Amino acid sequence: MSLMGSSVAELFSAIDKLRAELLNNVEVLTDCQRVEGEISHGEILSLIENVILGIVTSLSKDEAPFLALPDRSNWANISFDSAIGLRMTLGSSVTTIRSDCPSSVTKFAQILKIFVVIYKLVQSNSYATKRDIYYNNTQLFGSQKTVDSIVDDISCMLKVPRRSLHVLATSKGLISGDLCYMEEDGTRIDCRSCSAAAAVSSNIAGIRNIVSHAKFIMIVEKDATFQRLLDDDFCTKLSPCIMITGKGVPDVNSRLMVRKLWDTLHIPILALVDADPHGIEIMCIYKYGSVSMSFEAHSLTVPSVMWLGLLPSDLQRLRVPEDVLIPLTKRDESKLSSLLKRPYLASQPEWQKEMELMQQSKVKAEIQSLAAIAPDFLTNIYLPNKLRYGGWV
Amino acid sequence: MLREIQQVLRFVQLLGKRRQQSGLNVKGGLLVLVWTETGPSVQSLNCAVAAAGPWCIGINMKALQPDLKECMFPCACPCLPPDPEELCAFTDLYGSLRLLLTFQMKDASPEWCARIETFLHTYSLANAKIKIHFKFKFSQQTFQRDFSVKIKNKAGGNQRSLILDVTCRTQPPECVKKGCWCQGGHPVLGDRLPLSIPPAAMDQGLFGELSIQAVTLLSPCVLQYPNLPTQLTHIQVLVYGPSNVPVTGPSTFFQNLPAHLDCQEVGLHGLHCSSFKDLVHSGGTVYTVEQENCEDPEQESSPAPIRQSLLLYIFLQHSDPFTYQLSDMMATEVLIERHLEDILNNNKQAVTKAVQTELKNTLKAQNQRKKKMRSAAEVILGSSLSIVSSSSNMDFRNACLHSMKMSDTYDLSASLRESLRRVTSWKFTPKNICYSAQVEEYPESDEPTRTEI
After folding, report:
1. pTM (2 decimals)?
2. B244 and B217, same structural domain?
3. Cys bridge to B253: A166, B259, B318, B344, which one at CB 3.0-4.6 A?
4. Where does this one sit in the cell (chain A) (predicted)?
């Protein structure tokens, strides 16, 4: 039974209205949205072979081979597209990895090793996780982080999504609510369990037969908040809905899942994050993408994400007790200033206002601070009212 | 004769050491003339040692006490003064003589030439600011050599400043055409190791604090060619007393040292001490490094490794607040040298470990770089060949084979390996610390001028 019993229609009227608006925009944006087609195995193999041929050709000319990796961390290589988010520009600067330089030869070797692994996976149509790749040669790679970074570098270099490389990442996200789907291997996932959430799949591209009557999807920043909502039976009270968390900065699979749900269901996606610069940045990653994954923005971003809470204006409006408010640190202020300069904020005047309010008040608050008003305030008052009255920006 | 020359140098150095504290220059000239006088039956060898220049300012020959002179040359006989023309040429270069000591030895032998030359060369290596002129006349023949250091490097701890001759005497490889070649070396200062004085030495009057300071010098320098294969062929150990004057005579301790070193830890296959003959002529103790048997024919065809040698300086340091008279300090040095074997054996474990550490640290960076390049190259080649071999794309495979002008993947493997080694070996990375110059086609030789004995 949903929270408001007979007022289900009232509860979701604002949501339904938002959905209608979004669907209008979706029609406009249809041409802009890339329908992610599968890249064939042959194409992937061919791309890798071209890299190897380049190396052999260099050696045949008595030249030291090198690899040119697009620089994924440079803001200068990023442009903002309102339909997509942060995307990597064509002709972006590259980092040269030389085979004749002691400082880069190991990385060169690591990249080639991963090329071989990917080649073999694609050839045999099998999959491996990044963790598997690391543990197969820990001495060469040194750390899991090295493997993770190189896989993304290769994805960017070849201009193919990582999943096309047959390399999977262990997901860290959780999902719960009115949602059923089938994974590639035939496993049926039912997220409707009240007490436990399902792990986000590690093969999002393989998900089929998505069935959901959810009115909205709520992205929850933190696992702690997610668990609290789960314990409070939020998905039943605000049924039908879906909630998902990436447990902080979201991994690629969590972002892919959000995107997939948007592509399939076209329902409003609302973010519930702490009222602090870090939370806002996490929300921006879901909405506009990240610099490091900008080469894959079109499949990872959901520009329609709305900011449900916790808004800085909520803190004043709800008179959240001052003793649970935390002063902004120097780092917070610096991040806030940096966020305000981001190219996508120009198209979000309401977000700008909220952030400027935070700048002026010089305080931040976690979602848990609402418990200071009442223990069940979040689940029984705050969120239902927000959803009923369209309290998102 | 070497002892006498040694004493003179100690005298000048110890005097200079006192003045060094006031920051005066340590450069100057040293002249060593040795000539024979034919007597009725036995040839005597005359020797004159002269010094001039800033390094011996303060020496007052007239004030030299006869007993000090006796202390320096207890076994020598007085001799005629040297040819004034020889001295003139010397003073023209360095100014008026500050020191001239002459002595005569019986039992002249032409072998003294090589021994003195080696001694002076060893001295020059650790006292690079002193220009040495050596002339040996035996019968009607003359051997002459001037030791003038091209490239000096300071390597000093708190206790003393060392000016070392780091000139690389190895000709650069022919392959170095457009790039630069470092013509010097970069000494690495090791840790100071305190030594305990054995009872026998103490009974003879040796007290105070004794220690050794190690310095290593790898030559030639290949820092600018980090991928170049190198091969260490020799290690030479030179021991110097507290006055920076070389210790004479072979050292049993150092001759036996290789047996106690863990060569594997240092990254070497083995060390053995060179022959006595080599020791006499090269100064100090020389070890030959055993080379790895190359079983891999592919490796044999690679660019020939650059042969390197390592110079290990062992500087003895001594301080005793109760020894401050010059004659006492010189006597202490004689005592240290006399009991050196005993001292080293008394601290055998510590000295062995210190030498081990210095060798390991000096070779570590180079060995690690080589290992890194080698293992990365294996991965690069293995990965590339794996993809070529397992590809079903004939166009791709043929393109790779055709590019390298090979007919099959087996030949392709060897060809790629050789090519990768070739293109990476001579990678040049300029370093500010190197003494680089464009390689001259016919660089000047610093071989001694000699009319052969």
Report:
1. 0.73
2. yes
3. B344
4. Nucleus
